[in-house]
Amino acid sequence: MDFAALGLTLRLASLTTLCLLLLATPLAAWIATGHTLPRRIAQAAVALPLVLPPTVLGFYLLIGLGPATALGRTLITLLGHPLAFTFWGLLIGSMIYSLPFAVQPLIVAFASVDPPTIEVARVLGASPWTVFRRITLPLSRASFLTAAVLTFAHTVGEFGVVLMIGGDIPGVTRTLSISIYDQVQELNYSAANLTAAALVALSFLALLIVYARGNRRSELA
Amino acid sequence: MPEPHHLLRVRTNLGPLHISAKMTLSAPWTILFGPSGSGKSSILRAACGLIPSADVQFTQPLPEPQSLDRIPAYRRNLAYAPQGAVLFPHLTVRQNVSFATDIRHQPHAASADAALELFQLTPLAHRLPRDLSGGERQRVNLARAFAVPAPHLILLDEPFTGVDRSLRDVLLPLMQQFVTQQGIPVLSVTHDIEEALILNAEVFRLEHGTIIDQGPASQVLAEERARMLNLLNA
């Protein structure tokens, strides 16, 4: 078992989940509150990582964060080194790759809050921010858990993006899924089996949490 | 004490229905009466700021007349009990009723306790809406509106849907007494003749978005009865 890879994977998945929820909440709130074209464009863009091959995403990230683009050059000047093949490059890649898994459940949750409920809160004196804080957020609590678990699990399982943007540097960018690939390349099947089984267990546990919560929620409704 | 005169004028277009209504709220309790689809609920929603395109004027005895059009719903300082008891599903009865005072940072406000008491909800204070009957939910809906601290106007949409008659007959005089003491005008939408007669309120009769009759309930509804009788005899 590659414990360095396990630690790195858990750190990457936790940080990705935390950063993504912070980013996804306002984004989902904006997308959920109307039917304008910019919102639909944003929604389609957010869902893009679902259909793109991870290698395509990884390739564009590698190019975008590198010296070939203005953004990449600015980042290199600011940081003193390129983001590719570092943990932080991996974090950005993971965030984009898992973005739909964080945003989509929140859009659904925010949009499913009954409009009359929001209207009566407004008339009783609640500003848009108060409505969001006191009505929309508490009613969407279960979906935050869903978004967090799905993002975490999806990040743990990523391979293509990680390999393209992070490479395979032990302790820096070698995650569990890449570790399995390496172990298989070395014909070390028993180690690969152990790591793979750990990933299956982790993913199953994550889905179990989501579905158990989901069923409890439907009982409440 | 001289009776306050509030004036509410609402103009809006909702598809084929053109609404144009001007109401003097001279009595503490005014009833907007009419068949379904006549625009009653829309007038309340427009007054609340829930129909963005509506042209709404509201005049109070003090200070000066004001147009509400540019004032967002949450700054209009109104109390509103919508049709169908729309409660906050994640909040207890007490939290629902004290919503307006809580967001104004007035925790443990007397108005919330008084409203719970008035609508006989104190024993249910810790229940969630999903554990209430239809009539109980409707009472929470009303109590939540009555707990708004010093609103300009209380707007009630079909306030006694689901509440049994005997309880309605108990609650109506208490509610009327409450608003008379506080000096807050009430505009209530209904198609229930009895409700109007019990209160002997000022009635505005609405058809196709236009007020076609107004006056004390006994007078306006007597005319309606006579008209119905004429139709039957014809």
Can you tell me about this structure?
The complex is a heterodimer of chains A (221) and B (234). Chain A is mainly alpha-helical and 221 residues long. Chain A has a single domain, classed as MetI-like fold (Orthogonal Bundle), CATH 1.10.3720.10. Chain A is built from eleven helices and no strands. Chain A is globular, with a radius of gyration of 20 Å. The mean pLDDT of chain A is 90. Chain B has 234 residues and is an alpha/beta fold. Chain B folds into two domains: 1-77 and 153-160 and 183-234, P-loop containing nucleotide triphosphate hydrolases (Rossmann fold, 3-Layer(aba) Sandwich); 79-151, no CATH class. In chain B, 35% of the residues lie in helices and 24% in strands. In chain B, the strands form two sheets. In chain B, strands 6-7-8-3-9-10 form a six-stranded mixed beta sheet, sandwiched between helices. In chain B, strands 2-1-4-5 form a four-stranded antiparallel beta sheet, with helices on one face. In chain B, helix 4 (110-118) packs antiparallel against helix 5 (134-146). Chain B is globular, with a radius of gyration of 18 Å. The termini of chain B are far apart. The model of chain B has no long low-confidence stretch (mean pLDDT 87). Classes of the chains: A mainly alpha (221), B alpha/beta (234).
